[in-house]
Amino acid sequence: MRTIIEPFRIKSVEPLRHTTPAARQGYLEAAGYNLFLIEARHILIDLLTDSGTSAMSTEQWAAVMRGDESYAGSESFFRLKKVADALTGFRHMVPTHQGRAAERILFTVMCKPGHVVPSNTHFDTTRVIAAEGAAKIPLVMLTVTNNSGGGQPVSMANIEAVKAVCAPHGIPLYLDACRFAENAWFIRQREPGYADWTPKQIAQKMFRLADGCTFSAKKDAFANIGGLLCTNDDRVFLEQTNLLILTEGFPTYGGLAGRDLDAIAVGLEEVLDADYLHYRIESTGYLGRHIADHGVPIVEPPGGHAIYIDAARMLPHIPAAQFPGQALAVELYRHAGIRSVEIGSLMFGEAARHELLRLAIPRRVYTQSHIDYVVEAILEVNQHKQSIRGMEIVEAPPFLRHFSARMRQL
Q1: Per the count of CB atoms within 10 A, which of 149, 159, 359, 376 is most buried?
Q2: What is the pTM of this model?
Q3: Domains identified in the chain and CATH numbers
Q4: For residue 207, which of 199, 218, 196, 219 has the smallest C-alpha distance?
Q5: Which segments of the chain have a pLDDT < 70?
Q6: What is d(CA 95, CA 261) in angstroms, rounded to the nearest whole number?
Q7: What's the CA gap between 128 and 136, in Å, rounded?
């Protein structure tokens, strides 16, 4: 069958609130044209992020009721550890309240001033090792899939090649594994030799090529909060655990409630279901194909969790200094109540390589008709794109300015 259907039934619903273009213009002005600062109740379709915005399943909600809230030695922790160990094969695992907490602990323990961490978002690994020297590189990190690179997957051959470069120098390879299941599905679809593998088997091989990982459970575990930090290094694990106790909590809860640990454990198994992954990737591709076929430039091929519109190509009359991605995000919200996020000069400043607008699709939240509405809205905005104006920053913090900067239209 050609029709994409959701591999689930809806058991509970949350109402959406329609607003008028005039009202949305007022919300934009009050928020300084920053969509992060608009109240969620004023959003019709929220594609700001796929992080922590998933719909949990009946099994996850049932697991929430089993949550053991013991401070130490919680049964919820050991249920999660059993699932994580079987999936990743790493010797050590601790939970954290989200992925960035796992990253902070990892980099605090392993990195020192002057160190360089090559990543598929920033560097070619071989070139950096040759240029910087192995002594300056405490670890190499691969993000699967690559969020800043258009949601593109990392092939198994690429992971193996990076491991082959790192291993002779004794440099550990870590995965930023927040979208590991989507990456596994792309490998199954596109890479020769894996068509008959299950998503779980592919994911297990990915993890076994690495020496550790950080993981945001707010993506490919359907959880609303939580993360994991895994390693094979006993010494690093001891230091990570000591820091975890200071900043997150005891190692068997890591800043999370027991019910969160149980929800993550169930989600890690559900996300590897082939029917779900087929629907997930196909429905995202559906959005990409339907706007690209009508002349909207996107990053090709479509990623797994989001569609990235190339705002620089769509709005060539707006220079990078006037933030074309943000200008497009503002117009899409004003026109149709859809919230998205700029991935470009506003977010990365002078380091930006592209001017993109990301449409991140929450897991198991929106139906086909919601996506059709998004398609219709984008195509209507594309018809009057010449009238879209650039943006200017009025005030902004020195770091992570895209979260709180206030702007005005030119």
Answers
A1: 359
A2: 0.93
A3: 21-50+273-409 (3.90.1150.10), 58-270 (3.40.640.10)
A4: 199
A5: 121-133
A6: 8
A7: 10
